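User: Some background: our group keeps a shared notebook of sequences we're curious about, and every so often someone picks one and asks for a predicted structure to add to the entry. Today it's my turn. The entry only has the sequence so far, pasted here. Could you supply the structure so I can complete it?
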Amino acid sequence: MDKRRITRTLLVVFMAMAMVASTTIGALARPDDSNGIVHLDEQFVGWFSNGMINDAEACGPFAASAEAVVWHLYLDLPDGVSQEDVTKAAVEFGGSVASDIEWAIAGGRIDIWARTAVKNAGQSAYARQGAHTRIRDAQVHLADEDVRLGRDVAIQLGRVCYSDLGPTGEITFHLQAFVCDGHDRFPGNEVTDVSGTWDETGGDWQLWDKIYKGAAPTVQVVGRPKGCRFDGNQRFAVGTSSQMANRYILPGSTDAADSGLMKISSTDLPEVHQQALFWANEELWFQRLDNKALGAFQCYDDRLHADNYEWILIRDYDKLPSSITCIAWNVTPAATEE
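Assistant: Of course. Here's the predicted structure to add to the notebook entry:
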């Protein structure tokens, strides 16, 4: 396996282990300047609900829904603080979302449930995509603002609750293919010290028109370069790991009459692949299926090494792309400019 892909896999495993173990880790320290407000444990700030453990019991007073996510948070009240001292509970989320908050106190503990949903599905890109939500902060307000709490007092994150896949949204894939008469007709991939190890072009990648030494720009649909023609029979597959676990061959192929394109919605993918695309800490891989000699394969923000596989990585679920482009550059000496 490619060194980069091993690193990615280890990162995903580590993050998943950290999420499961997080509720047993002591709260991160905060200065004793709380002014009567208890905040969310800092280790949970920025977490997305997609990828967290989905537990029906976490819904509390709310019902599980495919359009909304319910977050469960809790705080063990410190010594000297009673339920009469609690005046307010609030939770802040990223993105254009609305939230309903319910909370209850029993047995020296306050439980908070926050049901989040997009405000207007036609207004913002975030709302239109309907991604799971990101937590920014949670607060419990005490009646006495002069209360100074210990450094280990913080709100803990429990689990989330939703039905089906939750609000995963929709992304359109533009899959494009070309056949060119040489490797120098198109920009290549990013090159690292191990690019030669994973070379599937027989060394011809060294003839790429441009070889990136750093992160390449996001892949976009392009017009027909000189020396290339649109490919009308390129096929693709998706998987949930670099070994193409849950491999699924996409129906259809690229269309030479339509700029070498094949279009598919994420909603047309099996659920396991939608989950891999939209859930944090999971992976959706695209594979260029054998057609002609590989020139380069590029997807979204991943164009690395001269191989047939690339990874779709959503870096910010508050800013989901409406479309993702993958391009297969094939090479054959018989290809001539039309």
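Suggested note for the entry: The first strand starts at residue 37 and ends at 39. The radius of gyration is 24 Å.
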